[in-house]
Amino acid sequence: MSVALPRRDEVAPEHTWDLSLVFADSAAWEAELSAIDTLAQQFTTLEGTLSQGAAQLLAALRMRDEIGQRLWALYTYAHQLKDSDSTNPTGQALNDRAGSFAARISAALAFVEPEILAIPEATLSGWIASEPGLQIYAYELNKLNQQRAHIRSAEVESILAQFGDITRAPYEIFGMLNDSDIVFPNINDEQGATLQLSHARYGRFLESDNRRVRHDAFKGMYSAYKPFRNTLATTLSTAVRSHVLEARLRNYSSALEAALKPNEIPLEVYHNLISTIEANLPKLHRYMAIRKKLMDLNELRMYDLYTSPVPEVPMEIPYAEAQDLMLAAFAPLGSDYAEALRESFGSRWIDVYENVGKRSGAYSGGSYGTPPYILLNYQDRLNDVFTLAHELGHSMHSFFTRKTQPFVYGNYTIFVAEVASTLNETLLTHYLLNHRDDEQLRKRLLVTQLEDVRTTIFRQTMFASFELDMHTRIEAGESLTTEGLCQRYYDLVAAYHGPAVTLDEEISWEWARIPHFYYNYYVYQYATGLSAALALSRQIINEGQPAIERYLRFLSSGSSKSSIDLLRAAGVDMTTTAPVQAAMDAFDGLLDQLEALV
Ligand SMILES: [Zn+2]
Questions:
Q1: How confident is the model over 553-571, as a mean pLDDT?
Q2: Which of 327, 387, 398, 581 has its CA 20 to 30 A from that of 34?
Q3: Are 441 and 308 in contact (CB under 8 A)?
Q4: Which of 365, 418, 368 is nearest to 395 (CA)?
Q5: Angle (CA) 176 223 192, round 5°
Q6: Rounded to an integer, what distance in angstroms lies between the CA atom of residue 168 and that of residue 172?
Q7: pLDDT band of 2, cuts 50, 70, 90
Q8: Cα separation, 428 vs 325, whole angstroms
Q9: DSSP for residue 299
Q10: Given 391, 418, 425, 510, which residue is catalytic?
Q11: pLDDT tens for residues 270-315?
């Protein structure tokens, strides 16, 4: 018997998000769009006036923020309406219009930054000191000031802007090959049915319990990339060369500095991450040896790393029970946090179940001045409970930040974004390990958290190390050859995984299929984020109240200071090796617990 998915109008309203908290209906949305349009037209009359005085600058910044806030809410309503049911033509239409409207308005606001940078630094500092209204913008304006040394003459800037399209080309060429032109072979699935490999199927096949399927998927995937290794080495090398060139043209000492400095991340954060992880590789080697034993294999291969080494625990956790679990697991975070959680459940901030036309996956959304909505596709499994914990982490971060900060700091940076979400997952794991007396479940929870650390900290740091190596070589005038890339990548995989893993030669060209290598020093933030979350959750569990108070202040601080300063106030100094080492110690503790069970 098959049960069809419900239509949107068949889902109980209490399990859907209440978008009327943003706009009563689409007529109200339309009226707001016109109002913002009028405001934006008024705003363009300010062009050329920002350098006239502190009062003019303040008026412009306030109006820019009002437009920004209202535009964000307009866009939130439209895309969330579409995401809840793409078969609803209204949501689709509003979303399309919101997208092009937002692009037009952003272009109309674009004169602000260059005009501020045209004001001499001393004049700007004087205005900040003399105009009390500009005080809240002091951090934003000082951050802009720091860019002055890296902004070139108007003529050079214009040339750089015109070349922008071309410097993006390596990533676009990689994308065309990777998403369209590459042809993957067929393999036989667990039932013997012949299926063509794809990116999504590869992920699923690697999780299979059937080793033959995992092996075939791995060999098939890498055989597809093999003929393109030289082409992909050239696109990747060109991407790295363009990062290095742009850094030079903008007076940075390296591509790493060009990527980190605008976000106020000191270079030692990056270097400390790599050196601390690489000093702790014996812990990953130990995990690999335990995994090999758990899976009862003579040889542990790279294609054995994504399947669970312990059996699935059949658990049904209805949504109401998941809500109670959240309240219990996050109780250490105090009564304000608990009250906000209750409000998220009771005031319909969460869109819980799947329906026809609903977007897949999960996210935390909303905007400044709206509830921090959550989209789920909840299915009563343990994984879904963890997804709820993760998204609630983001939404509580948004909630406390937007309640406390002005609009200009009402968001948070990528560097800190995953701290609140993964901290919640850690607290949930800790709670379940201490309150459920079920050995299978305990093993499963331990493996899940160990896998998070393996894939998010170890693997992303391995990528970060490879990225640094590529850029450093180009900066030293070397070239990146296919053989050189393959050899160095293979050596890194071997060093990270240790003697318990037997490597296939195919892994030496894994770099050829990883889009993140085109992102220019991005992935290290996954590793630093989870490290900070693990370090903070240990402080909350071991230290109690003082650690909790520091953490709640962090949740309320948005982007009002640099990411490093915010985390330092919360109790983790990412410019030192301590937080990453604390995460490694937590990993070792989890290994001890797992080893005791096997
Ligand atoms: Zn997240």
A1: 97
A2: 398
A3: no
A4: 365
A5: 105
A6: 7
A7: low
A8: 8
A9: S
A10: 391
A11: 999 999 999 999 999 999 999 999 999 999 999 999 999 998 888 8
Q: Which of 110-119, 160-169, 363-372 has the highest mean pLDDT?
A: 363-372
194: three-class secondary structure by DSSP: strand
Distance 390 CA to ligand 1 centre (A): 6
Task: Indicate the pTM of the whole model.
Answer: 0.92
Instruction: Check: CB of residue 471 under 8 Å from CB of residue 459.
Output: no
Q: Could you tell me where the beta strands, DSSP code E, fall in 15-144?
A: none
For residue 186, the CA-to-ligand 1 centroid distance in Å is 33
Q: Shortest CA distance to 210 belongs to which of 293, 313, 312, 307?
A: 307
Sole residue written with tokens 């459940």: 345
What residue type is 296 in one-letter code? D
Determine whether 391 is an active site residue.
yes
Q: Which two tokens stand for residue 493?
A: 């995989």
What was the pLDDT predicted at 150?
95
Q: Tokens 């800790």 identify what position? A: 430
| Residues, CB-to-ion distance under 5 Å, ligand 1 | 421
8-167 has which CATH code?
A: 1.20.140.70
Distance CA 235, CA 229 (A): 10
CA 421 to centroid of ligand 1, rounded, Å: 6
- Looking up tokens 């948004």 gives 398
Q: What does the domain layout of the chain look like in residue ranges?
A: 8-167
How far, in Å, CA of 479 to CA of 463, rounded? Answer: 19
Report the C-alpha gap between 462 and 497 in whole angstroms.
10
Identify the CA nearest to 394 among candidates 353, 423, 430, 370.
Answer: 423
Q: What is the pLDDT of residues 202-248, one digit of tens each?
A: 999 999 999 999 999 999 999 999 999 999 999 999 999 999 999 99
CA-based nearest residue to 280, from 544, 125, 495 = 495
129 Cβ neighbours under 8 A, 6+ residues apart: none
Kindly calculate the radius of gyration of the chain based on its CA atoms and give it in whole angstroms: 25
* Whole-angstrom distance, CA of residue 157 vs CA of residue 155: 5
